[in-house]
Amino acid sequence: xxxxxxxxxxxxxxxxxxxxxxxxxxxxxxxxxxxxxxxxxxxxxxxxxxxxxxxxxxxxxxxxxxxxxxxxxxxxxxxxxxxxxxxxxxxxxxxxxxxxxxxxxxxxxxxxxxxxxxxxxxxxxxxxxxxxxxxxxxxxxxxxxxxxxxxxxxxxxxxxxxxxxxxxxxxxxxxxxxxxxxxxxxxxxxxxxxxxxxxxxxxxxxxxxxxxxxxxxxxxxxxxxxxxxxxxxxxxxxxxxxxxxxxxxxxxxxxxxxxxxxxxxxxxxxxxxxxxxxxxxxxxxxxxxxxxxxxxxxxxxxxxxxxxxxxxxxxxxxxxxxxxxxxxxxxxxxxxxxxxxxxxxxxxxxxxxxxxxxxxxxxxxxxxxxxxxxxxxxxxxxxxxxxxxxxxxxxxxxxxxxxxxxxxxxxxxxxxxxxxxxxxxxxxxxxxxxxxxxxxxxxxxxxxxxxxxxxxxxxxxxxxxxxxxxxxxxxxxxxxxxxxxxxxxxxxxxxxxxxxxxxxx
Length: 505
Prior knowledge:
The protein has helices spanning 3-8, 33-51, 70-83, 96-101, 139-150, 167-183, 208-214, 243-256, 283-294, 311-320, 332-344, 370-386, 416-433, 480-491, 501-504; strands at residues 11-12, 15-19, 59-64, 87-93, 112-116, 125-132, 135-136, 163-164, 197-200, 260-264, 271-275, 280-281, 302-305, 324-327, 351-353, 359-361, 367-368, 403-410, 437-438, 446-450, 456-460, 468-475.
């Protein structure tokens, strides 16, 4: 593969992602040191043009999570920044949200920043995220930037010219102040005194939260685990969607009789939780909890979610909280941009959140920040304790999911996007011919609702980047999930390039 195609192929939505180290059979390195250098140099050139400033006037920060490839990639990024004439700032181990906030803080006031991370992906992967004051880079801008990288040579420069910046301390202090102001406790400096909080950092970059935030605010943190950065991720995948990860946190909460458990992904832009009774607060429950916390301050507002949320969540948001539920496309940038759009046209929308745990608040720069979600949750927990209430009571009327399944079907042809569109069109036509309820509007895929002999819903959509068609199914009663799955098999019959083997098991 030529250099230009190889570099362009590293784009994954609005991020760069690739294999950064050897060690997995059949997965050669694609995010090479040279490519990393050229991409970082292209970011400086792109940012200089955007800001209409010479590179010498740009202050660009770089941080990374705990991945084993981070030090080598950071060296290349700093070489590129210094070599193009900009001032480089080395923030060391950091979080993705902190790298954006480095542009906001007066003490740092950087022009742009880069985060070296691949979120929860396996140890051999890594990637790059890019920030300006407008937020994370848009997909189209990244495409333009990578085209610049194609025409950019590798740059050698003295990495000692980078200025060290202890960003995570500044970020943690900011989180502490937000919690103090939110709780307004009698003991202003220790507003979490009396609460027992367990954190599972999954050996990612989130371990700082225990000592630098919870410890500073007086919380008890016994039982917190996997706080040491380790890019091999020896205990579990640092991913709030991973069942093993959530079970590890749940066990720690129960064993230590904690009031609340928090879990972060590798770069801390996602969060989920576990309540004192072991109930997992992720996916729909996390969305419901955050909406319940925000509802008093934003009455009748709109909550933006991705497309795979449950009908039960809609019933809770609209029936219990008197909010509007707006299902949109998957992809954290998609829900964030839709939230921005609604607010700009005058429709109040305080929250854009995916079932993955990516949650962005309007009040927090539309930044998907797992630590900020934790801040809102901790404030609510402290206030509930002060009023002799439980955090659980906020979502006690959210009906639990009875049965659910997700199937990911491969599309076995080169032009998988066109084929997937044909599948969706035919699928919808067949559903209407059989008088199934097609939910409209649908911003992604085709959603069917079932009410009668079979109760629940199904959503068929195309993956954002891969040759796959995910199918989500939820049943409201015993056997409903398998009945709906059987209906899906019937509606998808005859598509010879759609691998339905997972669906038919």
